[in-house]
User: Fold these one by one.
Assistant:
Number 1:
Amino acid sequence: MTNSLFPQSIFLASRSPRRRELLSQIGVQYELIDIEIDESVRESEKPIDYVNRMAWEKAQKGWQKLTAEMPNKVINKALLAADTSVVLNDKILGKPLNLNQAIEMLSQLAGNSHQVMTSVAIINKDWIKQAASVTKVHFGAMTEKEILAYCQSGEGADKAGGYAIQGIAAQHIKAIEGSYSGVVGLPLFETGELLKLHFGA
Ligand SMILES: Cc1cn([C@H]2C[C@H](O)[C@@H](COP(=O)(O)OP(=O)(O)OP(=O)(O)O)O2)c(=O)[nH]c1=O
């Protein structure tokens, strides 16, 4: 379904299949652009500053690539990028690199509350703007058996914090306060607001 508020396609600088699905959900047509950035956290950088910087850098890098490769095509276009971090007690939990890390992460999240921060940035020829969404996620208590079973499913392997609310992990999530789409990787309210600014809708 297309959204008449957003009549032209945008560029999406993301390898995340979740972000593609979420953008399609609100009827935005997109073309993909592949970029690579250094995702290391700076010393004493706050999690919210980190996600904002990452989304900003992804957007800028994507725009640089577009303008270098196809200068005529970008005139009236916008490019969107986003970044998601799972934050427990002010500490960023990245993507688990192996089963042990996944178990360690989920053991910290189980029976606890944490935040999911997602920043979305949109850039066009005139401006770059961004918005962040912070959602509190409450996990129910989990037995060792449940933690192992979940981690062995492999579902959380490429996800911040090692879980996917849109998947099996939902079984262990008691409540959230904030944006569901933000937890999955693209807060659709904030995204819509930024897209309206670009399209003058
Ligand atoms: C917490 C959580 C994260 N995630 C995903 C969203 C993001 O894809 C990923 C966080 O990693 P990101 O580094 O934000 O994104 P990415 O590397 O997957 O994609 P790209 O940078 O190319 O846009 O975790 C879920 O799918 N479900 C969840 O419940």
Number 2:
Amino acid sequence: MTQIRFAVAGARGRMGQAVIRVLTERDLTIATTFDKGDTIDLSQADVVIDFTTPSSTLALAEACALEGEKRGRALAHIIGSTGFMPQQLIALDAYGERNIVLRSGNFSLGVNMLMGLVKQAASKLAADAWDIEVLEAHHKRKVDAPSGTALMLGDAAAEGRGVDLNEVRVAARDGLTGQREPGTIGFSVIRGGGIIGEHSVLFAAEDEVITLSHSARDRTLFARGAIEAALWAAQQSPGLYDMQDVLGFR
Ligand SMILES: NC(=O)C1=CN([C@@H]2O[C@H](COP(=O)(O)OP(=O)(O)OC[C@H]3O[C@@H](n4cnc5c(N)ncnc54)[C@H](OP(=O)(O)O)[C@@H]3O)[C@@H](O)[C@H]2O)C=CC1
Ligand SMILES: O=C(O)C1=N[C@H](C(=O)O)C[C@H](O)C1
């Protein structure tokens, strides 16, 4: 394939705008851009970069699959949207049969590196002595919580401990909560102003605390990562991928 042709979904959104800016700066080919209510025409696109909402991502997965079947070559669907319900993720994963699906709650190198560090720390620090808490802060316009990144970091910690995050997750605390249950992984969420994305994982023991954290300073970071992911994905076969595959971290 000579020049990979990009479609950008959610083109009027914060991330859509950042993606279009970086594609333009890099002189990459934009086949089409669209937002809510627009007609979707993927006929000239090889990859779709999608920072929208869970429901529109699912609709777009079907549009990618139909277009891929029409031309006899799968499209790559790069998904940055967050806030999926478990059933939506199951439905999305099924598109790995028909599309090249690459989904990540965070396209930065730093967060993907941090996941490995969190997993390693969680695997070494005994659950009865070290409590794990995931903290995140974002801008006031964010509509989902905890963030996709916080859930990825929680998953990495749970994986390090050999447990399922769904079994140990504590999503919020308020009122007379009782003491902290050993082995749980707690989440705390801040929303305010223009914060781009702050994430920390605390490992708290009786006498010491380890904090592993990441701070995003500019959302262009995520756009650049998604474009790298798209260029990589365009060369793959249909299946399910994430940023760990792109970066060779798996
Ligand atoms: N994975 C990562 O690295 C990152 C992920 N994100 C995630 O990306 C998503 C978008 O974030 P952000 O750009 O800040 O949000 P915005 O609300 O700024 O942008 C989302 C855009 O998608 C549009 N949209 C909604 N429905 C559709 C549809 N059916 N078809 C096409 N476009 C649609 C919205 O239109 P309208 O406003 O009219 O509804 C809006 O323009 C969020 O889930 C966020 O958490 C964000 C940053 C990094
Ligand atoms: O909505 C955002 O802005 C962000 N969302 C992603 C998430 O939910 O983790 C990634 C990043 O932190 C910014």
